[in-house]
Design a protein that fits this description.
The chain is an alpha/beta fold and 196 residues long. The chain has helices at residues 16-24, 44-52, 64-67, 71-83, 102-133, 146-157, 162-169, 173-178, 182-186, and strands at 2-8, 29-34, 58-61, 87-90. Strand 1 (2-8), helix 1 and strand 2 form a beta-alpha-beta unit. The termini are far apart.
């Protein structure tokens, strides 16, 4: 049996490209997984696939980083595949899992993939820092504008119930509760005036 394995890291990503390539490669059965994990333990579908392999089966993936996250993981997976008498084939990386050089080749592919991921994470972090320095805001857009927050403060100071304010602005009561008046927003611990 020829098994195909397609994986993306998030549910929002699309498997279509990998699935098409695996079908064209002649896979009898294709296992899909939408999960990011640092090792095989976090990928239940892949674990089931490894357990199902029998002598003569072939495990096919488009590229090494769909199968393994780092060089050691790749070597462990290759050993497990070879132990049951199956083969591993990567469509975008020339590999013959039966050759003596396969272990080294896969280790190098895994290492290169790991270096690419580390570089990608570093570049992403650098880009985020540059954007922050330019004033770009990250995260969810505030539910209330600055003018609306000012209006909320005035209504709260006037004693209007939080529930009514929330209904007026179409937001939750907790959103209104988080709007502080200017004095308490600038002071960590509001201090009551001292009378002599």
């Amino acid at each position: 049996m020829i098994y195909g394995y397609a994986r993306v890291s998030t549910k929002k990503q699309d498997l279509a490209y990998q699935l098409e390539r695996l079908r064209k490669a002649g896979c009898d059965r294709i296992i899909e997984e939408k999960k990011s994990a640092k090792d095989t333990q976090g990928r239940p579908e892949f674990l089931r696939l490894l357990a199902a392999l029998e002598p003569g089966d072939t495990l096919v993936a488009t590229v090494s980083d769909r199968v393994a996250r780092d060089p050691l993981d790749m070597l462990l997976i290759l050993r497990e595949v070879k132990t049951v008498g199956a083969k591993l084939r990567l469509l975008d990386e020339p590999l013959d899992s039966e050759s003596g050089i396969a272990d080294l080749t896969l280790y190098m592919y895994g290492w290169a993939g790991q270096q690419y991921r580390l570089r990608l994470l570093e570049n992403t972090a650098n880009g985020r820092e540059i954007a922050k320095a330019k004033g770009v805001r990250f995260g969810r857009k505030p539910k209330l504008t600055a003018n609306q927050r000012e209006d909320v403060r005035g209504r709260r100071l006037a004693g209007e119930p939080i529930k009514e304010i929330a209904e007026a602005f179409g937001v939750s009561e907790s959103t209104i509760s988080r709007v502080k008046n200017k004095e308490s927003a600038t002071m960590a611990y509001p201090v009551a005036p001292v009378r002599f």
